[in-house]
Amino acid sequence: MDNLLSIECLAKSFTLHNLNKQISAVEDVSLYLKEGEFVGITGKSGSGKSTVLKCIYRTYLPHSGHIWYNSERFGRIDLATAPERTIIELRKHEIGYVSQFLSVMPRTTARELVHNAIVEMGEDAQYAEAETIKMLEHFELDRSLWDSYPATFSGGEKLRLNIARAMVKRPRLLLLDEPTASLDHGSKLKVKQLIEQLIKQGTTMLGIFHDLEFMEHLCNREYQIREGKFYTAEKKSKFTIT
User: Fold this and answer.
1) Looking at the domain 39-61+92-238, which fold is it?
2) Where are the alpha helices (DSSP H) in the chain?
């Protein structure tokens, strides 16, 4: 089985201009994902977990290292140096990202958000509408909210919508940045069901979770990040946050 993603010696730091200081977020990070795997990452808050995912999605530009991705459209490319236009195409068609936060256009309804994500993949409007309804119903988002603006939603409703928008595209690579952080138990189970479904369909996933029970039986391999560096967990039973 080939690697879909291979990270080699990734490093990212941030400049605090007011203090004229450079802060290292992650350094010398190396990991790989084979096609169809679910790989989990844990670590303390502020340890650099989200930074790694944002470098892959290219929200952040790495300072050094390589992020090799085997794209259906472009072949093997380095996400650390790929042109912006290529990154935009990959976000539309191959790479999804789910965070704890929902960032949307102010006057876009919940229904439109999910619908537009499907149309962006090249599907027709009729198919997009049917899939939108299925996804919103799966996450039990109240029908009265479907044509409302997400700015009025609770934190949990926004998160469910964010997950629905990303998962409905069935991306080849899905990055999950603590997607169950503010969800109740029932909503977490809905997310888990969809993750299991996507795994069966061949989606490769890299996920950050603080809920280790949620990760149980989902992950093929696990990494822990400490002081900006990655360590492979030997066994799940020993894989804990300290």
Assistant:
1) Rossmann fold (3.40.50)
2) 49-57, 84-93, 110-119, 125-138, 155-167, 185-200, 212-215
